[in-house]
Each structure stands twice: as structure tokens, then as C-alpha cells.
Q: What sequence folds into this?
């Protein structure tokens, strides 16, 4: 699994790997190799919610799933229809611990959900761990929509992506303040399976920046402790000054390092045991000890306005 987090494939479990592994993730194994691409042959697929969870209302769950399917169906000529009764292609449920498919859930945290690739029976089905703190809002907890978009990608046949900007990256994209959307790679991968939809997307899917792109420009560069951090869009790279080299596993979404910083930043500075991120007319004060944004202020408060 190390390859998927952009870490060195050392085979040893180093502290960096442990951090990546402890993070909430999808239960689908990265090690699993796919003999052939599995995809649905029908262009209209049906889904049914066979068991609702205990954390969200029926309406909240239905809305999240409808929005999640819509993101994929905007890119490809597929129709997803909710079915109340009888068999559906994709059966979705919230489950606890062992739920008789050989992949028991692990209680709160860790694995949040898993899905099966297209096929008959359990194929295409999606299971969510009912013990997670599911939310339908931007509040703390697990945003059901963010997890559902990823799992539904598997239900349509997509494996994990090594692009850290992709919905199909094994760690979920919990950018709570950003609009959830498919990345350039997600769109390319799903269109390779099902073709392009004639109606174009509302806006172009974002590309994860490439550090060696000769036209690359940075939004901000700043020094934190013994590091230099390079910002571009919602991603960063970190340069370790002691080791004299770029750290492995980057680019990474800013929000994975500093939760709550979900957009591009104009400037960032470390001061008085806090980090200040400047985003448009605002600045976000981040406390690294508790890993939280502690205050939002006007960007020009430093200038005593
Ligand atoms: Ca879990
Ligand atoms: Ca099924
Ligand atoms: Zn996954
Ligand atoms: Zn399951």
C-alpha cells in the first residue's frame, strides 16, 4: 500500500507509513490486482438502500447518495436510478462489524466503507461502517457525500488512483470548504470505461499540479521550522532543509497536513506557535498542537486596521 500514498516502497513500516495508515480510509485493498477491468454493460443502473444507518436521517442519506451518483453521471453516459423494492444492481447498506462478506468493519475510525466491483450478486454493492460519526454537513465527523463518491467509483469499476488530487485516492478527500468534484484523472478514468457524455461538464475538472511542469508557478512559499513549504492550488510540497531534499509523498492536499485549510492560499507565515494562512481578505490562524483552525480574522489585522 505504500505506493499509493506516494511513500518509498521500503517494505518496513516507518512512522510516515503509520500516519498514512491510521488515517480514515477505504477498505478496498491496494494490493489486489485486477485481472481485467470490470464494468457494467447496461447504461441504466439501479441502486437500492437496503439498510439505513443510525446517524443520519433517511432524507439526508438519500440526498448524499443522489449527489454522489450525479458527480459520476455528469461525466459519462450512465443513468442511476433508485429502486425501492426488489433487486437492484447496486445494493447499499450501513453495517456493523462482521456483516458476513469476509471484510468486517472495525468500529469508529480506520476503515469507513468498502465496495465491490461490478458483477452479479454482491458485485457493485457498497457498505458503510455504521459506527462512524457520519455527517451531512461540514461539521466534524465523516462527510457521507465525500466517502460515497469514492465508493461509488469502485461500484462503477474504478480501482484506486495514485493521484493525490483524485476522488479515487485511497484516503478520502475531506475538503470541507471546497466543492467536491471529480479530478481530471477521475474523469479520464471513468470516461475510458464508459465513454464521454455529450453534454460537457459545468467546469473543467481540476488537474493535480505537476512539480516538473515548466510553467508551474507557486501561490506561496514559506519556511516552517526546518522546512520550506511550496503551495499550489490546494496542494503542497515540503522540502526538508536538514536532509536537503524534497519529502516523499507530495504533493498532498493542504488539508491533510493542516485540516481546515481547504483552498489555495495567498501567503502563509509561522508566528508565535501558530501558522497564519492568508486566503483572500481573510486569514486563518492554525494551532499545530491541536491541529485546528482556532480563529478566522481579516487579512489586514496585522496592519492595525
Ligand atoms: Ca471504521
Ligand atoms: Ca449487486
Ligand atoms: Zn477505495
Ligand atoms: Zn461489507
A:
Amino acid at each position: 500500500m505504500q505506493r499509493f500514498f506516494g511513500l518509498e516502497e521500503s517494505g518496513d513500516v516507518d512512522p510516515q507509513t503509520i500516519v498514512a495508515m491510521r488515517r480514515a480510509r477505504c477498505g478496498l485493498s491496494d494490493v489486489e490486482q485486477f485481472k481485467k477491468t470490470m464494468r457494467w454493460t447496461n447504461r441504466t443502473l439501479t441502486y437500492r438502500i437496503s439498510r439505513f444507518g443510525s446517524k443520519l436521517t433517511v432524507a439526508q442519506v438519500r440526498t448524499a447518495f443522489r449527489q454522489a451518483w450525479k458527480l459520476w453521471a455528469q461525466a459519462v453516459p450512465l443513468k442511476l436510478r433508485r429502486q425501492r423494492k426488489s433487486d437492484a444492481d447496486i445494493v447499499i447498506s450501513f453495517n456493523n462489524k462482521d456483516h458476513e462478506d469476509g471484510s468486517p468493519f472495525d468500529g469508529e475510525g480506520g476503515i469507513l466503507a468498502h465496495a465491490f466491483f461490478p458483477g452479479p450478486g454482491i458485485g457493485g454493492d457498497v457498505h458503510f461502517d455504521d459506527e462512524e460519526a457520519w455527517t451531512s454537513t461540514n461539521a466534524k465527523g465523516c462527510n457521507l457525500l465525500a466517502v460515497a463518491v469514492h465508493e461509488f467509483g469502485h461500484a462503477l469499476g474504478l480501482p484506486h488512483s495514485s493521484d493525490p488530487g483524485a476522488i479515487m485516492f485511497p484516503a478520502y478527500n475531506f475538503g470541507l470548504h471546497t466543492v467536491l468534484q471529480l479530478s481530471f484523472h477521475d474523469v479520464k478514468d471513468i470516461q475510458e470505461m464508459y465513454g464521454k457524455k455529450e453534454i460537457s461538464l459545468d467546469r473543467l475538472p481540476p488537474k493535480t499540479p505537476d512539480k516538473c511542469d515548466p510553467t508551474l508557478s507557486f501561490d506561496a512559499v514559506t519556511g516552517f521550522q526546518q522546512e520550506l513549504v511550496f503551495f499550489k492550488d490546494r496542494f503542497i510540497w515540503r522540502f526538508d532543509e536538514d536532509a536537503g531534499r524534497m519529502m516523499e509523498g507530495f504533493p498532498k492536499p493542504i488539508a491533510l497536513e493542516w485540516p481546515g485549510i481547504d483552498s489555495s492560499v495567498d501567503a502563509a507565515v509561522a508566528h508565535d506557535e501558530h501558522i497564519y494562512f492568508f486566503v483572500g481578505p481573510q486569514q486563518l490562524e492554525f494551532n499545530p498542537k491541536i491541529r485546528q483552525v482556532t480563529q478566522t480574522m481579516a487579512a489586514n489585522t496585522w496592519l492595525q486596521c
Summary: Residues 1-22 have pLDDT under 50 and may be disordered. The chain has two domains: 2-194, 220-303. The two ends are 50 Å apart (CA to CA).
